[in-house]
Amino acid sequence: MPSDTNESKKIFVSIACFMDSDVVNTVNDLFRQAKFPERISVGICLQYAPELCEKSVDGHGDFAELDTIDRVRVDKLHYTEARGPIYARYRCEKLLRDEDFFLQIDCHSRFFANWDEILLEEFARCREVSDKVIISHYPIAIPQMNDPKLLGMIGKINRIREVTAEDIRMHGTLVTMPTQPVSSFGLSAALLFMEASVKRAIPFDPNLHFGLHAAEQFLYSARLWTHGYNFMTPTRHALGTEYLSSRDRIPSAVWQHYCREYGKWRLKTWTKVKYYLELDGIAQVDENYRADVRESRQRLGVGSVRPLVDYYHFTGLHTELLKHFPYYANNHTGSHEP
Fold this sequence. Notes:
Blueprint (H helix, E strand, L loop, with lengths): L10 E8 L3 H12 L6 E9 L1 H6 L16 E7 L6 H9 L7 E5 L3 E3 L3 H13 L5 E4 L3 E2 L6 H4 L1 E12 L2 E10 L5 E3 L6 E5 H6 L12 H13 L3 E4 L5 E3 L10 H25 L10 H4 L2 H8 L7 H7 L3 H7 L1 H7 L6
Parallel strand pairs: 1-2, 1-4, 2-3, 6-12, 7-13
Antiparallel strand pairs: 4-11, 5-13, 6-11, 8-9, 10-12
């Protein structure tokens, strides 16, 4: 694949980290495996406990090295000020400068050699299919990065795992690695690659406290799709991630705090997400969000290039939504596929 057009393209890598010390290994491997490390910049939102780092004797919270690595920008906040992954990813976005491309990954990732060139070349191939492209898929698991059989497969986002009145979860299927980029339903937060101009134009909503699954991945997928962007599965692996829990690297007091806040906010945030997704009305939005939710939906809600209901048909969700969300059913009964 010719790479002339990628000759000087710069990539910004966004990493949200909640007290996971493996982020240091991730950043070091990221630069080590890049073909053009001088063109890579990293933005980290580090949610941590400096008081525990100072007292650590077992390796927990050893983040000091991040401050010594060139082209790494770190936004630090105490873990008690954290508001979940979407807020952290929004803060990462604010570290973006003049880079041409934006890559979002997990803080526990590892990379294939020349991963940066791979992503740029795959993006160029995807642009032959569509002008408005988002590359995303479920990355290979780190322990499987040398497995010949699994290297010939890829996690394509092609189904909805769960639909209930309290959540919508996308999922993927391991498929044979395609010879040409193929379209998919949406995004994985563990690998999201796009032009940086798209991220600047369509940022995360920082006020979706402790939102997961539907709030993070499904909502942002719907926003991008309704703005006219198409999700593509590439033809090569660029990186792997850790699917086993990283909680054993997080001090118990920190994790307990997170769980309490998640339990407090999860359903409140879901009411706002439902309003954005036209699954419920403004009257049902939790009072913590209601004051400015109408204005925020105009700025941070779905786009107008393609109708949201068409996305629901595209993903096969429409019929399920009619069953679980009366507000949606009242407004879309009789709606047909475009």
